[in-house]
Amino acid sequence: MTTANAYPTTQIIRTIGILGGGQLGMMLAEAAIPLGYQCVFLEDNADCPASLYGRVFHSDELDAFIEAADVFTLEFENTPTSTVEHLTNLSTAGSKQGMFPPLIALDIAQDRLKEKQMFQKLDIATVPFMAVNSEAELQQACQTLGLPIVLKTSRGGYDGKGQFVIKEDSDIKAAWQDLKDAVSGKGALTPTPAPLIAEGFINFSREVSIIAARGQNGQVRGYDLVENHHHQGILAKTQAPAVGTSHLLKQATDAITTVMNHLDYVGVMALELFVVKDARGNDTVLANEIAPRVHNSGHWSIEGAITSQFENHIRAVVNLPLGDTDNVHPAIMLNVLGQYPDISAVLKIDGAHYHSYHKAERDDRKIAHITLMPNDVANLEPALAQLVAILPNKVGLDKKIVAVDDQAKMADDLTVADTDDTDDTDDTLDKISTQSEDSQADEAQK
């Protein structure tokens, strides 16, 4: 008996190599299979979520991983740049079909100061900021930006670590003592010497994000703006589309398109934004950070968009036309943290879509997500209330949102808003490593 070749004779790419094997890698593989592509993964945790969909190579098996794949991508931005540079060189030499996204995108995303400087260069509004290399420069930043400010390491840091909220002058010395070692690279947060970054306080009303895909031909297709809510520094809920933001969509789309074109980017990118008032009292957005990968705030798109963020990323990587990004139906996505709910109870809720990551339970670990899409939009909030009631970890959604007037508390919130940038990861790695986002977080907690 003969078996037909599953691949078109014109198809050069058959296998996609993904750096990392966490849930993002798993969902990328799920999107690749219907398109006729297989995936392999470079990941030190053999039992990672992505292992359900393809072979997992340990970092010691880098050469074998390279041999097994035709084109390469990644699931987390803190992949060591040396690994990405090596794969890029192979592609440039013609032995492989490409490494996407480009190295420059990782270099910028791994450095908060470079990121803000890029926004500034591209005339994209962002929070006021200054580089800090000494206590004297920190004093000057406090005077120039005004208190409160958030002082951060420009590289490394995770889940709120590597940050200090300076609320009054008496905090300056303590903040410098706490973070100064990062400037010389002696601290535990980052082995790479880099300036600190001081960010001015902004009174933002909410955090939104936009996701877009860019193809190898330069085509960009953007998704709707979504609104994000965090719980203890971890994304808890995303609403798509964000209610009452249609007037901000063009500004956000223009910003992410400008960034992607500047970087000659290929694949899916997320841009996190703060909604603030301008001098005339009108809504506007300030760029916070980019994520050069598929993103937690885009998980709703699996059911909620015509083409999911995962499929569009695969399409871009293998040089297929990008798919329609229109919203099919309003949706709310919730992360399941720490403990699994009763799946039967979840699926009794009309419009509930359950996605398990096949992980062991652990406090505050992202182990699944649930997307709510009831047929009647009027039932969206009631469905959310039903879901929250049965979640073991209610991620703070059982509490009423209280208006915050205290600027110092808002400054703390600003710090929290910058802690979910790597989807459950410790982004301190500068070594050659291929641990997925969740494996890195495990290392951080040991």
UniProtKB/TrEMBL annotation:
Listed pathway(s): Purine metabolism; IMP biosynthesis via de novo pathway; 5-amino-1-(5-phospho-D-ribosyl)imidazole-4-carboxylate from 5-amino-1-(5-phospho-D-ribosyl)imidazole (N5-CAIR route): step 1/2
Keywords: ATP-binding, Ligase, Nucleotide-binding, Purine biosynthesis
EC id: 6.3.4.18
Catalytic activity: 5-amino-1-(5-phospho-beta-D-ribosyl)imidazole + hydrogencarbonate + ATP = 5-carboxyamino-1-(5-phospho-D-ribosyl)imidazole + ADP + phosphate + 2 H(+)
All copies of domain ATP-grasp, residue ranges: 116-318
Region of interest called Disordered, as start-end residue ranges on this chain: 415-446
Enzyme class (EC, first level): ligase
Residues the entry annotates as binding ATP: 112, 152, 157-163, 199-202, 207, 230, 288-289
Family indicated by similarity: Belongs to the PurK/PurT family.
Role according to the record: Catalyzes the ATP-dependent conversion of 5-aminoimidazole ribonucleotide (AIR) and HCO(3)- to N5-carboxyaminoimidazole ribonucleotide (N5-CAIR).
Protein name (database record): N5-carboxyaminoimidazole ribonucleotide synthase
Organism (species): Psychrobacter alimentarius
Protein encoded by which gene: purK
